[in-house]
Every structure is written in C-alpha cells, then in structure tokens.
Amino acid sequence: MSRQELLSPEGLRVDGRRPNELRRISCRASVLSSADGSSYYEQGNTKVLVAVYGPREPRQRNPALATEQAQINVEFNVAPFSTSERRRRSKGDKRLLEVAAFVRQTFEGAVQRSVYQRSQIDIYIHLLQNDGGTLEACVNAATLALVDAGISMVDYVCACTAGFVEETPVLDLCGVEEAAVETPDLTVAIMPRNGSIALLQMESRLHVSKLDDVMDLAIEGCKHIHTKLDNAVLAAANDLAEKLSH
Amino acid sequence: MQADNDFATDAELSSRIVTPGSAITSDPMYMRGHGTFTENDTIYSSVSGVVERINKLVSVRSLKQRYSGEVGDIVVGRITEVGSKRWRVDVNSRQDGVLMLSSINLPGGILRRKSESDELQMRTFFAEGDLVFAEVQLNTPAGLSLHTRSIQYGKLRNGQLVTVFPQLVPRSRNHFHSLPCGVDVVIGVNGYIWVSKQVPASKVEENAELIYSDKNDSISDHEREAIARVANCISLLNRLYVKITDASIMYAYEESLHHLVKDLLTKRVAVDLAHSVKSRLAQQS
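The joint structure predicted for all components is written out below.
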C-alpha cells in the first residue's frame, strides 16, 4: 500500500485545509428535553451527542463515596454506524472506558464539586460519527452540556488536537491523518480564562524540541473553540431570557 | 490576571447575561452570591445566566437548573424508598427529600405520637411510587426534609403528573388551584405539577379517612378530557418557556378550546396555539 501524502507540496492537507486551520464547528445546546443539560457538537465529520443528568441522588449509596463533593460519572458510547465499517462495541471496551476516564478526570477539576454535596452528575456521551479527534469533541460537547445543565464550573474546558506531519505542526487532525501510523497526535484541553491545562494526552513519540510548537498550535485552537462554545451558550441563554421576559 | 475596567459600572451589573468564567466585577465592595466564585479579588460567574444584584450581594441566576429547595416551598414528590421511620422522596432536586413518619398526619386527623405499629404499617400510608403533596420543612446539606401536616397535603390521586422546568414556577401564596374548568392543579415549585379531578373543599374534610386511599374516585369521560386538556396546555406552556401560574394555564386552556385535546401537542396546532397564548399574555402584562 502506497503511503498517502498528508501534506501536499502546496502546503494543503488531505481535506484541503492549511496546517493551522480547524475543521468547521457547529454546536447547539438544549437538544434533548428529558435531560437536565444536553448538546450536539459537530467538528468536521465527527459528531457527538451529550446528555447530562444531575446533580441528582447518587445511585449506589456508598458511605465511602458519600463525600462532601459530587461524584461525576461518564459513560462513553460509540454508535455501530459511526465508522465506515459497521462494528458493534461492547460496553467494557478498554478504549471506550479510557476516553470516559479522561473526560471524567478533566471535569473533576473544572466542575465546582463542593457546591453539590452528596450528589452525582452523570454525563452520557454518544459518538454518532467518527472522523478523528474523538476526545476533543467529547470534551467540548460535554462542556456545553454541563453549562446547559446549569452546573457550576470554574471555566469552560476547551480541547483541541494537534499533530506533526512532515516537519510541520498541523491543527485538528481528521480521521485519515490520525490513522496514519507516523503522525503523533496530541490532545490538549485548557481552561481559557487562566490558560491552565486540564488534559494532555499523546500516545505516540514526538521529539521534545517539537513539542512546544505543537502545544502552542493546539492551545491556539482551543481558544478558537472557546469563542465558538461561548457563542453557543450565549445564544441559548439569550433565547431563554427573552422567552422568560414575556 | 487584571480584569478590564469597563465592566464594573453600576448599571451594567444587573440583568447582564454572563457565561461561566466571565468576570463580573473586581470592585471589593461587592460580596459574591450563588453562581459566582472569587479568584484574585475578582468575582467570576460559574454558570450561564443573568446577573442579579441586591445591595452588595452579586449573584448569577441560572436560566436552567435543577430545583433547589427553600423552607416553605410547596412541592410534589414521588416516594422512592420506604425506610425506617422515613420515606425517601424524589423531588427533582440535587438529592432525594426525606419525609419522616413523625411529620405526616394520621388518617382521620388523629393527633398522637407515632407508635411501633405505625412504623410497621408505613406502606399503608405511602408506598414506593406514590405521589405526595408536601411542604419543605428544613433544608440541610443532607437533603430536604418534608412534612404533610395539613389537611390539603398528602397522597395525590384522581389525576396525572406533568413535569416542567422548575424555574417556570414562581413562588406564590397559593399553589393549589381549583380551576374554573373543573380541574384541580397542584403546581409544585419543583416543577412537578399534578392535574386532577376537582373535589370540593367540603368533601375533603368529610373524607379525612380517605387521605391515604390508593383508589381513584369514578372519573367521567368529560372530566378525563378536561384533565388531559389542562395537562397538554401545561406541557405547551413549558415548551414556550412561559411562567406557569393558574392565570397562564387558564389562558392556554381557553385558547385551546378550538382544538381537539389529542391535537394540542402536534406541531401544527402547537405553533398556532403558542402564538395566540403569547399575544394574550403580552396583553395582560
């Protein structure tokens, strides 16, 4: 199999973007009526639906867990039709559990858990279509759904990926770029207000001298995503405020 | 991080829409309230909502949130668990509420201490799944404590439950309404609304023995239709995100009379109805 060219001589990527361009993002809050908070998030062809329930009575009343802080539960589900090859995944799939654990750890830092004592917040993430950047899409969509549920958070959590292709840092890898064996793929989540890092994940090797460039690019992407999310939240809030004022 | 200087002017402080992490003020004269936190002497919002200022207290009211109880609130809840000397009640809040055996009325309104035999027959008062109409007595970190020590509180029957956004229900003096259309509604502050057949007040006192009955009275087809119509009207008001009061329910009811009950929530009729209800509400205010 011939190696696919990820960056053309003109400096364009497989899907026609420049190295520092994000995919098209569209998102909406309050898409489900039965959940306390929900969101639908699209980044290119990656599509995620998130439902947040809570803070509510903990399901198993374990005295060891009956803490002064809210418990966060994350369940990550991948639709069988999310990739070009139909495939059903079991709930115990280690890859899925890992993504769920990353999301949980990220939000344990961002949600003001001490405000919600002895309660539980459930985040259900459904990946409807997968075209790379699963974790970033999950984090961004979950942020939107948590804000929609009116849960106190210190700040938004905005995630973005960046990779390194042919000596160039590239932003927001799509499925083809991510699948290429040699591309290192770094996911960063920041809290934009003070720029602190909430999540940092990379599974492949990247020379340490290149790390700063890739990180800076990813953080730049996170800031763009922050404005997108903020606009979606403001739109939803304005909509509700206007309806209530009648 | 130094916050911008232009946001702290007094006029801008209230009724401004903020999102999590946005700075509200760095003026040290203000105290932080709900929905905010401080960092480096600046007050930031932690939810998305409207800024409210009462004297020196700055808080953010979230536009969509779970119910958080206050003492004296009238709520409708569902029994989830029968424990020793207490029931756990789902009140659509952060935690389940607690209804103690000592804070209910006995059938017939007898006043006495609850004995061990009462403890053994707790399920004859409330069993799992029953709906109760209660008042919040205490609000502790462990949850809400409820009581049903009034003739009008107690088990709910003869009707159906409608769930709405809790912030649409304003706190008012009266949450139990006998609507002129022949339907009783209990508008719980927690967003649970009970719509039921009208029972005259005189009969309630007469039937004090029946307050824990599980049996419905006979409900005529006409009454059933009225109940269903009111329930659909409340669902419609909820979709429109309009405050739910006895007045707004009656407007919606009157406007809905041109349509069949089963059509009320279909898209075509709902849009039409929404328009007329909104214009009616605008006229009143």
